[in-house]
Design a protein that fits this description.
four-stranded mixed β-sheet, alpha+beta, homodimer
Chain lengths: 326, 326
Amino acid sequence: LNEDRLIAELRARLRGVDGTRLALGIGDDAAAWQPSRSNRSVITTDALVENVHFRRDLMPAQAIGHRALAANLSDIAAMGARPVLATIALGIPPDVAAEWVADCYDGIAALATSARCAIAGGDITRAAELVFAITVVGEVRPSNLKTRAGARPGDVIAVTGPLGASRAGLRIALERPDLRAGGAACREALRAFSMPVPRLRDGRWLGGSRHVRAMMDTSDGLSTDLARLCAASGVGARIDAIPIAPAAADVAALTGDDAEAWALDGGEDFELLAAIERRAFPHLAVRFRAHTGRDLIAVGEIVAGEGVRRADGSVVPARGWDHLGA
Amino acid sequence: LNEDRLIAELRARLRGVDGTRLALGIGDDAAAWQPSRSNRSVITTDALVENVHFRRDLMPAQAIGHRALAANLSDIAAMGARPVLATIALGIPPDVAAEWVADCYDGIAALATSARCAIAGGDITRAAELVFAITVVGEVRPSNLKTRAGARPGDVIAVTGPLGASRAGLRIALERPDLRAGGAACREALRAFSMPVPRLRDGRWLGGSRHVRAMMDTSDGLSTDLARLCAASGVGARIDAIPIAPAAADVAALTGDDAEAWALDGGEDFELLAAIERRAFPHLAVRFRAHTGRDLIAVGEIVAGEGVRRADGSVVPARGWDHLGA
């Protein structure tokens, strides 16, 4: 592998990605763009490490590239913003061929194209293990910017889709190869796991509503992420109903697992989690359905105090993803 | 190590860094800022991997943090821009203590403060080896933005300082521990290696001159970087004189090495490399010295054709840093 030659190949793979927002693209010391005058800029970085966040034997290179960018786009969606550009830092171990890296970039390029996110550049280096660090810059009207803070007691806690399908797909990929060619639920779970869809359209739409008081994504699991939203807002939460993805329920029935635990703690569903003014919620949910074709699902209520509890008062521990955990 | 607790500790270490440009800082799904209305934004990403780019046994944690940010700031300087904010993705192996990471952030914080670069957030994860991927966003007046393209035959090739001191410091750190407590030249070389100074002020000043036609930094070595500038500009170059840092010459005299090779191929000096209109060069160099107190050093001339040669016509091979090399 030679750096300049590999970069030339990767630039070729990115050729279909719209770079019109860039004043200067890949190949210089930095990339340049003209930010929109009336908007705030937002920025997020996610690192993905082989054998921590993904395994090469569980999915094709394209899916690994897709997921790496999707995790960042989900953060942009959670701010109510739209993506503008991404940079990609990539550490490549000696046993990874240039062809694998190029296929991975095909996955990145396909998602970047559909998300209208330019690829502005990055850095490629030798490493002992495969590592991605992707940074995405986005833009949002100042009045539409949503954060984790702002939830108030009485707000409806809602998610943009049912949860647990990605965790169900991980279960199949890791431990039940016999189900890989299983029925529709297994295929859907594997798809949710390997090709998650960042909720960019949902995020922009929810960002446009002044009734949405706080928003984040559920990448680390509802239990962990709701606790973070509560901590940022200085409130607590009561979970009344955990929306389980039908594919997760079906797979759990096959494997004997607890689908509710997957939905609560599984993570990587990349649905958005929002605190919404109670009186506005019913109408907002109807308009959300008309706009996206999917349901805005109420899962509980923001309450005074701190911590996340179930309706029966039992504490919900944050069992989701700790990036430094075992 | 617990992610939320470590992030709280690192936020504390960054407390002195000016974050006034940020509308929203560390701790949400993304950070937000208001870009300057009259400027272009620029973005650069650099990955640093343990045992590829640095070794923990060769320098303190603060210096490793400093260098990681310095490499990115040097790229911002090379565009004629000023830094606005940085994000930090960090992979931490199990044998690295939270205290080491915190010390490393002290080094990042000190340089960020002096460069007026906010730390906007990032991502921390478990990894098999220590990895940094830092992204810096900067701003520049559109007319001041410099790229690698634009050099024309006849231009003077100049650097913002003599070269090779960082490579001399690496030699001592790696192979001559007996010289670590050596004389002034050894200390200066070690300092150039462990605490390089990104030429932000020089870059902004040179960016303001319309006589500077192309610019980049010399992070991968003059031979490699000049070849890249030439390729981007569609020209060749003739090197007439290689400016050797006095510390590099003195250390090479002690170790029996070739100081000129260090200056030509060593890299990590983070000086800026510019192609400057010939008739403007003498006056520009005088003004540069008045502004910075240092010399703008002519190293050769841009010529028609391609490739980099010496005055005697011999080819200068690009022996600098290939990030995927052995």
